[in-house]
Amino acid sequence: MKKNIFALTFFTFAATAGLFFLLSNVLIKFETADARALSDEKIKNAIYKVLPQINKNLENSDDIALIYNMETLKKTKSVAAVFILDKNNNVIIHNIADEIHTLKTGAPYDAARDSKDVLFQRNLPQSGETLLSVPLAKENTLICVLTDKDIAKTLKIRYYTIGSAAALLIAVILYLLAKLFVLLPFNRTKKALEKQSAQDIKDGKYDEITDIFVTENEKYNRQITALENNNENLSEIIEYYFSLSGSKHLAFIILNSANNIVYAYDSTQEFLKKDFTKDSNILEAVAAPEILKLVNMAHGKPGYEVIDNILNHKVAVVSIGNKESISGTIIKVV
Question: Which regions span the lipid bilayer (predicted)?
C-alpha cells in the first residue's frame, strides 16, 4: 500500500509538472512579446535622448564621451550590442572592443546604412535578433541589436520555478491526504486483523482472513501449533508436516512413548507384519528385526536421525524428546 501511494504521488508530481511546463511556455511566449514591445519603446526613447550627444561626440571626435553614451544604451534591457558603422560598413566603435574595425556584411546592414529613416528596423534571420538603426553625422550609422533571449530566460526561470514548486506542493498535499485517509486506516485495519488472526491461531482457528497476513512457512508452523493446541495426536501433526514437505516414503511409522504404533503404513510389506494393528507394540508388529536396533540407537540420540540400509532400502529413525523422556519415534523408509 505504501509503495502504491509513493507511485501515485510521483505520477501526480510528474503530470502536474508537465502541465505547468506547457502552461508556462504559453505564458512565456505572450509575456516575452509584451516585454519586448515595452523594451523596444524604452530603447527608442533612450536613442532619442542621447542621439544629439552622439552626433556632437562624432563631430568633436570625442571617443570617450561616445563610448559612455553607447554604454548607456547598452544598459537598456534587451539590447545585445551597440556599435557605429561608417559608410563602408566598417565598425568604427563598438561596446565590445574585439568587434572594432570589423566589417559587417549582409542585406540588413546595407539597408540600415542606406536608410535615411530614424529608427529603421530590420530582422536578422540567422540569429532571430532585430537590428535598429539611426543615421548619424559624417555618413555614419548607429546600430542597436535587440534580442528577447534575456527576457525569455528570466521568464523561464520564474515560471519554471513557480511551476515546479506548485507541482511539488500538490504532490506533498496528495501524499499527506493519502497517508491520512488511506494508509493509516489500512494499517490500523491490518494490525487489527493480524491480532485477531493470531488469536484465532491460538484458539485453533484457521480461516481465509488468517491466510492474508501470514507467509507460507508461518502457515505451516501455525497449523501444526493449532493441531497441538487442539490436542491432536502425534501422527496427525507429523502426517501434516510430511504432506507439506512433499516427501514420498515407502514406509512410514510413528511410535508413541511406549513404542506402540499410532500411525503406520508399509507399501513394501517387508518391514511390518501384514496382520499388524494400530496400537500394537513395534516388537510385535515388526517384520524386519533390524529396525528395532535402529530404534534403540535413536532413543540414545533424541533429535538425531539414525540411518542404515535394511532390505536394500534406506531407513531413517529419529526420536522426539530427551533421553529421560522419549515422547515419540518416527521411522521412515525411502
Answer: 159-186
Q: Which domains does the chain have, with CATH numbers?
A: 1-76+148-206 (no CATH), 79-147 (3.30.450.20), 247-333 (3.30.450.20)
Lowest mean pLDDT among 32-36, 52-56, 152-156, 214-218: 214-218
- CA distance linking residue 299 with residue 323, whole number of Å: 7
What confidence tens digit (pLDDT) does each residue in 167-222 have? 889 988 988 888 888 777 777 777 776 666 555 555 545 454 455 545 544 555 55
Report the pLDDT value the prediction gives residue 85, as an integer from 0 to 100.
92
Cβ 113 vs Cβ 89: under 8 Å = yes
